[in-house]
Design a protein that fits this description.
The protein is an alpha/beta fold and about 180 residues long. It has helices at about 15-25, 55-65, 85-90, 100-110, 125-135, 140-155, 170-180, and strands spanning about 5-10, 30, 35, 50, 65-75, 75-80, 95-100, 115-120, 160-165. The strands form two sheets. It has a five-stranded parallel beta sheet, with helices on both faces. Strands 4-3-6-5 form a four-stranded mixed beta sheet. Strand 5 (about 65-75) and strand 6 (about 75-80) form a beta hairpin.
């Protein structure tokens, strides 16, 4: 069975962009699609970007043990990783990446200690603020909440097996790919 890789880091650090880079470079990598109670952003597709579910559906998934991990993110929406597709992909010999938050990474560390935990860090705080502001998907209030969460997330990076600084997507992606291939 291949090793699960968890990619986490603060909001707007570029996790999704790095993951897309990885997918373009290695056809054996599969990204787990998370379930979430938040509304879709423009361009997001149910079943590809996320499984968009109601609070009731999410509660049922938790109750039925269908999630490897789950958490409330930014004090508002819930996210979780469906167990079955991850286990099936690992058994089939695929490299599986979970792009999740710090809370979820901690749960994976407990439930799957062999997982490879990679923290994507910003070059500096100012760059993280700039990336979040230029994304244009959050209100000023949401940005403030996300930056507060980011402080806590950055403080937790020593809990990870590896820290990779995202100065530039290709450089960061290659470092992560090297870590995946070495595991």
């Amino acid at each position: 069975m291949n090793r699960l890789t968890v990619i986490a880091g603060p909001t707007a650090v570029g996790k999704g962009t790095v993951v897309r880079w990885l997918l373009a470079k290695d056809p054996n990598i599969q990204v787990s699609v998370s379930a979430t109670t938040r509304s879709p952003r423009p361009g997001e597709i149910h079943g590809e970007s996320y499984f968009f579910v109601s609070n009731e559906e999410f509660d049922q998934m938790v109750q039925d043990g269908e999630l490897l991990e789950y958490a409330v993110v930014h004090g508002e929406n819930r996210y979780g990783t469906p167990r079955k597709p991850v286990e099936e992909a690992l058994k089939a010999g695929r490299e599986v990446i979970l792009e999740i938050d710090i809370q979820g990474a901690r749960q994976i560390r407990q439930s799957m200690p062999s997982a490879n935990l990679v923290f994507i860090a910003p070059p500096n705080w100012e760059e993280l603020e700039r990336r979040l502001a230029t994304r244009g998907t959050e209100t000023p209030e949401q940005i403030a909440i996300r930056l507060e969460t980011a402080k806590q997330e950055i403080a937790a990076m020593e809990e990870f097996d590896h820290v990779v600084i995202n100065h530039e997507v290709a450089q960061c992606g290659q470092e992560v790919l090297d870590l995946i291939q070495a595991s």
